[in-house]
Design brief:
The complex is a heterodimer. Chain A is of the alpha+beta class. Chain A is built from three helices and four strands, in the order E-H-E-H-E-E-H. The model of chain A has no long low-confidence stretch (mean pLDDT 96). Classes of the chains: A alpha+beta, B alpha/beta.
């Protein structure tokens, strides 16, 4: 499984990355988690804003910090 | 994409039909000018129509949105509904007394009228609320 957290690096982006890491860890899953901070790369995903979360190529959340339960629902 | 980091909660998504008539192009011009004026940000309806996940999810998650259709064919609304996106603020230009034709020389007063209607459609629109 491949998870990407899109965001240039503000507090909400960092919080999103933390939530994703915790969700993956708590489920004991194997997943590659990448943080994408390059604005041009982020633009390739067609998102209206950040932070955003992408799971296996599909954008799951845009412009908000998801809950841990939401993330678990996307990856389990 | 946002130039800065993180989307401010007040950021308004503007979706225009941009159709092949005066009213379609009025939706487009109004969306461009409102974006330039900082009222909101025009977003790609085509990306939503293509069901690309970044565009669809963005429209689902954005707190405030105004969809603009030029005429009652309502392509913008249909695209949003087809992608299971809740239509929030909504404007149809022909319901504001603008007659549909094929004259692409847009009138300044009609552009301003559309911009005012879009602003009004956003008034009182709270996060996640459907305003029709």
């Amino acid at each position: 499984m491949e998870i990407k957290v899109l965001g240039p690096g503000c507090a909400k982006c960092q919080q999103t990355e933390k939530v994703v890491n915790e969700a993956v860890s708590e489920l004991g899953m194997q997943a590659a988690i990448d943080k994408i901070t390059d604005v041009l790369k982020i633009g390739e995903y067609g998102v209206f804003g950040t932070p955003a979360v992408v799971v296996d190529g599909e954008v799951k959340s845009v412009g908000k910090v998801p809950t841990k339960e939401e993330v678990k629902g996307w990856i389990s | 994409m946002a130039e800065g980091c993180c989307t401010p909660g007040s950021n308004i998504m503007i979706l225009a039909c941009s159709g092949a008539s005066n009213v379609g192009q009025l939706t487009n011009q109004a969306a461009v000018e409102l974006t330039q004026e900082g009222f909101g940000k025009m977003f790609c309806l085509a990306g939503i129509g293509a069901h690309l996940s970044g565009f669809v999810q963005s429209a689902k998650d954005v707190p405030q949105m105004v969809a603009i259709d030029g005429c009652p064919v309502a392509c913008t609304k249909a695209i949003l509904e087809h992608a299971q996106i809740t239509v929030k603020g909504y404007v149809v230009l022909t319901e504001h007394g603008i007659e549909k034709n094929k004259n692409f020389k847009l009138k300044r007063e009609e552009i301003e009228q559309v911009k005012a209607a879009v602003r009004a459609a956003c008034n009182g629109q709270s996060e996640g609320a459907a305003v029709k």
